[in-house]
Every structure is written in structure tokens, then in C-alpha cells.
């Protein structure tokens, strides 16, 4: 399959590098990473140890059958506009936060799939990505149900050794992932601690509260998830990634804009009742972004 991975951050580089084993992959990213990959290939270290040969460019390629979008949620619209130049058979969003698939579908004619990934990845230096933990990709039609596109993309991933499940229940998976991110990301970023720290306090805590509020919001939209299960999943993810620094903590440490709008901010926007923990987390992260001139 001819695949364009749009976004050469940690997950995009890892997924692109793994897919390059069996597919023709073009990774769209920033200049220093692109130059390093063009010169020496992409080095994958950590839990997967190999070198991948793939094309790396800074603008969209002329052709691709599948686009995998891995950019930050606030760059989704720009990615969608750039991808309009390519005649695609399908698009897969592998991004954090909610609302990305809708933005892609609004700009692109090709069908859009939703996906979640639990692989841990960290971009160390240009041309290198470290796989910090093996995980799983779950993908499928955004509104649930089955599609031949989802089956063929699932097959392409599996052929490349990526643990993949094609799901007919993506709305549930997306809300579950949102709840975990709502619980872990802003709390770790504000407290400047690794994931494990936010669920170490016995009893009630911010992370569990935020995850429960997220799921209660999803339930109002017809998603069948239990708040107590979401709190438990948040604890398990935080425990299994205890030493990792969440993506939002990494954003804050590098002085970059965060994905707060698509995570806790999305919960606040969609809830038609008070969600005080998500409101507080959103307000504090936005205050930090504004103070650092990262939002208007
Ligand atoms: O955004 C992240 O960092 C990850 O999705 C998660 C699950 C919080 C683990 O670090």
C-alpha cells in the first residue's frame, strides 16, 4: 500500500517506520528530521530495534492511497487542507483528543477512519525514534460499524507487525481514550510529574474525577461506558506507563502549545452540566498557554 504519514512526531515516526517494512511509506515532517532520514534512514530504538527505509518530505507527496494523520489536534485542519492535493482512498486519524475525524471529513472526500494507539514513543534526535512500550492500535469507522477500508488498513498494519484490532465500536474506544487522557495529561503537566504519580494517592484524586466526568459526558451522547470502569482504566494506564512523561507534560516542558482543547476542553464543551475538574484543568492549562503567548 502507498501510505503517507502526515506528522513525523514520535507516534508518526514509529508507525511510519514500522509500516515501511511492507509498504511504500512517505513521512511528512519538519526539515531536520526529514534531512536525517533522507541521509541515513530512520533508526527505531528501544522495544523495537531496527532501521527503516522510507521517503521523508516536508510537503505532501503527489500520490498516496492512505493518509495516516498523526499531527497534534490543533494542526488537524491544516493537515486536512494540505491533504486535499492528494487523491486518497482513505484517511486514518491516529491522534489524541476528540473532533479530529470530523475536521478531516469536512475537508477531504475520502472516507475517514478513527484510530487509537497505545504504543509508547519518544523522538530523541532527528532521524531517531525510541519505542518506549509496545502497545496496540484499534481502528475502525468513526461512527462505528464495519468497512472494507478499515479491514484493509487493519491488514496493512498487522502485516507490518503492529498489533492491531479492527473495531466496529470506535465511539466507545475514542471516549475511553479521551477519559484516560483527560485524567492523566493535564494533571501530570500541571504537577510536572510522570504518569504514575497522579494515581498514587489512595482514594479520590483529580485524575479519576476527570476521567469519570469525561465518561459521564460520553454517556449522555449514547456511549456505553461506566464511569467507575473509566477511572479504573485510567489507574491501570497510569500504572503501566508510570515512568513516562505524558504528551502534555512534554509539551509544557518544551514550551509548546498543548492539546487541551481536544481533551479536557472537549469534555467541558460537550457537557451540558458542570464538570468542575475538567473546567479547572482546562482553565489552568489555557492560562499557562496564554501567559506563554501560545494562544490568542
Ligand atoms: O498522551 C499521552 O501521553 C498518552 O496518551 C498517555 C496514555 C497519557 C500515556 O502517557
UniProtKB/TrEMBL annotation:
Residues 172-287 form the Ketopantoate reductase C-terminal domain. GO terms for biological process: coenzyme A biosynthetic process. Keywords: Coenzyme A biosynthesis, NADP, Oxidoreductase. One of its GO terms (molecular function) is 2-dehydropantoate 2-reductase activity. Pathway: Cofactor biosynthesis; coenzyme A biosynthesis. Transmembrane segments: none annotated. Its EC number is 1.1.1.169. Coiled coil: none annotated. It catalyses: (R)-pantoate + NADP(+) = 2-dehydropantoate + NADPH + H(+); (R)-pantoate + NAD(+) = 2-dehydropantoate + NADH + H(+). Catalyzes the NADPH-dependent reduction of ketopantoate into pantoic acid. PANTHER family: 2-DEHYDROPANTOATE 2-REDUCTASE, 2-DEHYDROPANTOATE 2-REDUCTASE-RELATED. This is 2-dehydropantoate 2-reductase.
Amino acid at each position: 500500500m502507498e501510505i503517507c504519514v502526515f506528522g513525523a512526531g514520535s507516534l508518526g515516526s514509529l508507525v511510519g517506520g514500522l509500516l515501511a517494512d511492507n509498504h511504500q511509506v512517505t513521512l511528512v515532517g519538519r526539515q531536520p528530521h526529514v534531512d536525517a532520514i533522507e541521509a541515513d534512514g530512520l533508526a527505531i530504538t528501544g522495544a523495537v530495534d531496527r532501521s527503516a527505509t522510507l521517503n521523508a518530505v516536508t510537503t505532501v507527496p503527489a500520490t498516496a492511497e492512505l493518509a495516516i494523520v498523526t499531527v497534534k489536534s490543533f494542526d488537524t485542519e491544516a493537515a486536512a487542507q494540505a491533504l486535499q492535493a492528494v487523491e486518497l482512498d482513505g484517511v486514518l486519524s491516529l491522534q489524541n483528543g476528540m473532533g479530529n475525524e470530523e475536521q478531516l471529513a469536512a475537508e477531504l472526500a475520502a472516507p475517514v477512519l478513527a484510530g487509537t494507539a497505545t504504543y509508547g514513543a519518544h523522538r530523541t534526535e532527528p532521524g531517531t525514534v525510541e519505542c518506549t512500550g509496545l502497545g496496540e492500535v484499534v481502528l475502525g469507522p468513526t461512527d462505528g460499524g464495519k468497512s472494507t477500508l478499515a479491514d484493509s488498513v487493519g491488514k496493512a498494519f498487522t502485516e507490518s507487525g503492529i498489533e492491531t484490532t479492527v473495531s466496529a465500536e470506535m465511539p466507545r474506544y475514542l471516549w475511553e481514550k479521551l477519559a484516560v487522557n483527560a485524567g492523566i495529561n493535564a494533571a501530570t503537566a500541571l504537577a510536572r510529574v510522570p504518569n504514575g504519580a497522579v494515581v498514587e494517592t489512595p482514594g479520590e484524586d483529580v485524575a479519576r474525577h476527570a476521567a469519570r466526568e469525561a465518561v459521564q459526558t460520553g454517556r449522555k451522547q449514547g456511549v456505553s461506558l461506566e464511569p467507575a470502569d473509566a477511572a479504573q482504566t485510567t489507574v491501570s494506564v497510569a500504572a503501566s506507563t508510570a515512568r513516562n512523561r505524558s504528551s502534555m507534560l512534554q509539551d509544557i516542558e518544551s514550551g509548546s502549545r498543548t492539546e487541551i482543547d481536544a481533551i479536557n476542553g472537549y469534555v467541558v464543551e460537550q457537557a451540558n452540566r458542570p464538570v468542575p475538574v475538567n473546567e479547572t484543568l482546562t482553565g489552568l492549562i489555557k492560562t499557562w498557554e496564554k501567559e506563554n503567548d501560545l494562544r490568542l
